[in-house]
Amino acid sequence: QVQLVESGGGLVEAGGSLRLSCAASGNIFSTNAMGWYRQVPGKQRELVSVITSGGTEYADSVKGRVTMSRDNAKMAVYLQMNSLKPEDTAVYYCHVRVLLTGSSVYTDYWGQGTQVTVSS
After folding, report:
1. In angstroms, rounded to a whole number, what is the distance separating the alpha carbons of residues 44 and 70?
2. pLDDT 10s digits, 48-77
3. Helix (H, G, I), strand (E, B) or coil at 28
4. Residue 101 has what DSSP assignment?
5. In the chain, what is the straight-line distance between the N-terminal and C-terminal CA atoms, in Å?
6. How far is CA 21 from each of CA 5, 9, 26, 105, 107, rounded to the nearest angstrom?
7. How far apart are CA 38 and CA 78, in angstroms?
8. Which residues of the chain, if any, have pLDDT below 70?
9. How far is residue 11's CA from residue 25's CA, in Å, rounded to a whole number?
10. Residue 26: how many other CB atoms lie within 10 Å
11. What does the alpha-carbon distance between residue 81 and residue 38 come to, in Å, rounded to a whole number?
12. How many CB atoms lie within 10 A of CB 43?
């Protein structure tokens, strides 16, 4: 089993910055992907950023404003968000795709979500 602990959400004015953190723990043998998604009521969850073996990808809506980083030793990922806009308001979810020790199948896990609210 895998636990994801998120932190860093909150209320910020437009143009401000926030840094989200997500730490994974559990019986993880390896990770295939670690990323951040966001969701607003009535809409589908959408990708914000993801780190895989191929590199880091960003949604077009956040490119140039968001930087995702990873600390392998801590099995943690971070999302630095700058120049925030009201349309960035959403619940942000951490996601990992991992191979558990003793397993041959990758499994997806989600964090509990952290609210980001950007006021205009």
Report:
1. 25
2. 999 999 999 999 999 999 999 999 899 999
3. strand
4. T
5. 40
6. 8, 9, 17, 26, 21
7. 14
8. none
9. 27
10. 14
11. 13
12. 9
Q: Hey, what are 99's tokens? A: 């191979």
Type of residue at 14 = A
- Cβ atoms of 35 and 107 within 8 Å: the answer is no
Q: CB within 8 A of 69, min separation 6: which ones?
A: 77, 78, 80
Residue among 112, 91, 119 at smallest CA distance from 9 = 91
Say if residue 82 is exposed, middle or buried (CB neighbours under 10 Å; 0-12, 13-18, 19+). middle
The token pair at 67 is 């930087």
Q: In this structure, what token pair is assigned to residue 39?
A: 């969701």
